[in-house]
Structures are given as C-alpha cells and as structure tokens.
Amino acid sequence: MSARYQISGATSAAISASVESAVRAGALAPGDPLPAVRALAGELGVSPATVARAYQELRQRGLVVTAGRHGTRVRPRPPVAARRAALLPPPRPDTRDLASGHPDRRLLPPLGPHLAALAAGFGPATGYADAAVLPELAAAARERLAADGVPADELTVTGGALDGIERLLAAHLRPGDAVAVEDPGWANLLDLIAALGLRTVGVPVDDEGPTVAGVRVALAAGVRALVVTSRAQNPTGAAVSADRAEALRTLLAERADLLLIEDDHAAELARVPLHPLGGVTPAWALVRSVSKPYGPDLRLAVLAGDEATVARVAGRAQVGAGWVSTVLQHLVLALWRDPATAALVRRAADGYDRRRDGLVTALAARGLAAHGRTGINVWVPVPDETVAVTALRDAGWSVAPGSLYRIAAAPAVRITVSTLDDTDLPPLADALAHAVRPVKGGAPY
Length: 445
Fold this sequence. Notes:
Blueprint: H1 12-25, H2 37-44, H3 48-60, E1 64-66, E2 72-74, E3 96-97, H4 112-121, H5 135-147, E4 155-158, H6 161-172, E5 178-183, H7 187-195, E6 199-206, E7 209-210, H8 212-220, E8 225-229, H9 242-252, E9 259-263, E10 283-289, H10 291-294, E11 301-305, H11 307-318, H12 326-337, H13 339-365, E12 377-381, H14 385-394, E13 397-398, E14 400-401, E15 412-416, H15 425-436, E16 439-440, E17 443-444
Parallel strand pairs: 3-13, 5-6, 5-8, 8-9, 9-10
Antiparallel strand pairs: 1-2, 4-11, 6-7, 10-11, 12-15, 14-15, 16-17
C-alpha cells in the first residue's frame, strides 16, 4: 500500500468509503495491496469482523480482489472514476505499443464520406416517441446473422458488446450469482462481472474454445450464466470449432436454467466460420459488435436471442438510456451497404491473419509455443510475466501481462499484432525468445 495514504474509519461503511476515496484520488493505485484484516483492525481499533465486512463490500463492488495468500489488492481497473493523474501511464514513448488491443487505424474504413452523405439526406429530427431500432437496420442485421446460422427473429441493439452483456447479466442474475467465463478471458468482462457483484468461475480455453470438461465443472458448481467468445477470443485468439460446438450444445441442453451469452465481437474480421450455440438453452443471446471491423468509436452491437431475453434487454433500455442513437444506426447501415467498405474490412482481416500467423510461425521456429487462431492477439505462455514484460520493454516492445486476463490459467503475455509489419516479426520473435530464455554467459539458462 502507498505510504501516502492511511485507511480510516470506525465502521465497515466508513472503511470501505476511505478505500474508495483513496482509489479516486490515486493514493491507492491499481494493484496496490491493502493491509491484512487483523493488521488493519489493530490499527483502527475495530474488530476484524468490521474490516472483513468492509473488504467484502469492496469486493462486491468490484474495487478490490482477494487472491489467497497474496492478500487483497485494488483491482487492475476498479469501477470508480479516478483523477487523471492517477490513470495508468501509457507505454513508454521509446517502445512499440503491442498492449492496447486496438485495431489498426490504417485499416479502418473512413467515416467522413458516409457522415457527409447522411447529413445531406437527413430529414426532420427524430423525436423521443419515434426513437427505436431502425427497421432497415434490423432487417440487414437479421440477414447477416442468418447467413451465419444464428436465429434472429428477436433482435435489438445496444451501445456495444459490453453494454449488451451487462444488460443481459443484470436482467437475469442477482448479486452473488456465479458466471462461467473463459480463463484466460476478456479483462473488461472480468471487471464488469465484479462490478455487478457477481462471482466468476473460470473455464479453461484451448484453440477450439471453452473446454467441455471445464464447462461441465462450472455447471456442476451451479453457475447461472455462461459467456462464450465465438471467434477471435481475447486474449488467446480461440474460435469455437464445429466439433466443440456440437459437444457444448449436447452438454448445455441439460441446463434449462442457464443463461447462455455468445460474444461475436470480431464479426467480419474473423475469417473462420461461426458455429453458434444459441437456442440450445431457453435463455440465450448472441451479441455482435461493429467496433472491431468499423471503428472503436462506433458504440453499437446487435443482440439476438429468445423472445423473453431480448424483451428484457430492450425494456430495461427504455427505462434507462432509452435507445441507441438513430444517427449511429443510419451510419452503421450505410457502412454495411457499401461494397468499398466491405472490401476494406476483408483487407483488414487478411492483414491481421498474415501478421498473427506470421508471429506464431516465427515463435514456433524459435521453439516457443503461442496461441492465435483468429483475431488480433497472440497469447504466449511464459515462465514469469514480470520478467518477460520487463525484458520486452527493455528491447523496445510494450506487451500486456497475462495477469490482466487470467483467473487460474498459467502465466503468459498478450501481444496485439494490429500495428505490426512483416519486417517487425523476426526482431519481435527474437526479443520474445530472449525474454523467455534469457542468455547468461553466452548460453540460455
């Protein structure tokens, strides 16, 4: 814990508020440890039970995480707005940023011409009573989903994939319920589940998606929901295969009480077939974002599912945000209809495949196993994340430590390939090999 801040309070509420205030101010940074329960109780003159309740409240709100003998720490991205000075610093200016997870801006379709065309053709402003899912957008979305085998009679739109998943979980689950998630898995999802007061149950992932054995164990543990990334899994690049989908459908058919959520965030960027699971359980949804193919600023996702689930999501939106901007919906529809934009997305997908496959191949030539079947990331197992991240940084490469994405999975680093060029692959692979097997006295050790 930072020496600049002393936790205070005589009640569990006051203690938890003191910790939250420290996080907002930056006195407690992401990853900082909190004092042991008994130690803090002694300092504050309260009972250990009072401190334990405070820590429990902080865990339920997603501000801290407890990891056995490693104690209680501030989450890497706690769900509370911090002052700008407390934000984590960006990668060093003298390193290449392979940690952000962003698509290559050079390969995103230009929005200006479509915005100009929309501005020229817009009629009267939309009123509150008229705002909803545009019928023509819904029709286009149904056609695109049907081509991938997704039943989409019931459909709505949300403000991005994570917004859709949040609405799904909030509509079906209550604080304390358990959610099965991929391990390693999407860091934003892990943070969201913690912020909702839900519990995560990790499911191991291989190149074909969540393992059947892992899902079976999670179901036996009583999870109320399962989140599966269909393709371009973050961080491993896994994609659910036809055989894996068939095995999972057989297993999940026995759980009528389970909410099944499929995240197809990469959509057209994933150049492998979609093998959907939707419909095998009574409550299900597939969420498909437009951010990865068309631009991170396009906060829109299509959500298809069973009638009751879609109605819950749409109904909750009506009493909250209301609707996704119809201007944004018109823009997405224009992008979908534009053959030139479709060609740009195909070009981007080809580029990501070449960079990702090239890095995996280069690492294999140096004796390093790596995962990256689809998407824009490569997952590289390492003996020690801190050593690997530091060595790569010193060599001029900023990568993400696997601890941001892991629950119980083995150590690794995540490398985003979107900004790499072909000439970058050999030196990056060399740096990775050195980071995993440092040279001492002229020979690897």
